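Run log, item B.
One chain of 274 residues. Sequence copied directly from the ordering sheet:
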Amino acid sequence: MTEPSSFLARALAEAARYGQDEWVFVRELAQNARDAGAGRVTVTTGADGGEEWVSVADDGAGMSFAHARRFFFRLYASSKEEDRDAAGRFGVGFWSVLRWQPTRIEVESRTATEVWARSFTGELVEREAVPTLASPGTRITLRRPRRSVEVGAGASAALTRYCRFLRRAGRPAPLPVVCDGVELNQPFTLDPPSLSFSTADAEGVVGLGADPRVELWARGLFVTEVALLDELDPDRSVPAAERRAGGLAPVVLLHSDRLELLLSRQAARRGREI
């Protein structure tokens, strides 16, 4: 890593691309777990005295410290650029943890042959730490001064928003996401009456609701929500009058493993799939 102060400024600037939600990092860490072949993502939260914490752990392949130094702890460096099945490939997502304003970031990982741990202050000063993982996988723990909002409720709401349809790498089976003992995965459906469909590029569900809504998902992770399908085209401006609901309105869930996302992960590039 470069000088902590200069790296922190750049990392904060990149983290800002992910929007204002301080919990968006759960999507990025769940994405990393998926790409590492995890069979489960386990999130735990807690508060002790004046501190609160959230920990995201997976049982994937883990990563060596050399790999973490080369890719994970850097910006714009990714080992997944040529992996078409990988959800992440920009080398930026991990640093979305800075949106949560942690005063300490703890990273530990175990592979079949190596185990290591590092701790970073809020200013990204690095220290060696004692690893505690007993089996392969990776765990990221964030700590900060305690706030008035319940940390467990915040984590659960964010995981439900971003990861409730999370799937395993390379196959459609769900990748369980558990927060404080409660599994948050949901089936890719809408309340009846609804209709499901699939094509070579995508799958979807159409139903009815009080307001029009289209949710776009990629590799089981939330991308964006708009009012109308036309708004998925970044070159089209939809007048506000067209967005108004007139009684029952269409609600659409769309999912594709083939979407190419923008760096912010809040939109897809224009192409045949979109």
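Observations after the first pass:
- Residues 79-83, 86-91 have pLDDT under 50 and may be disordered.
- The longest helix spans residues 151-163.
Flagged for discussion on Thursday.
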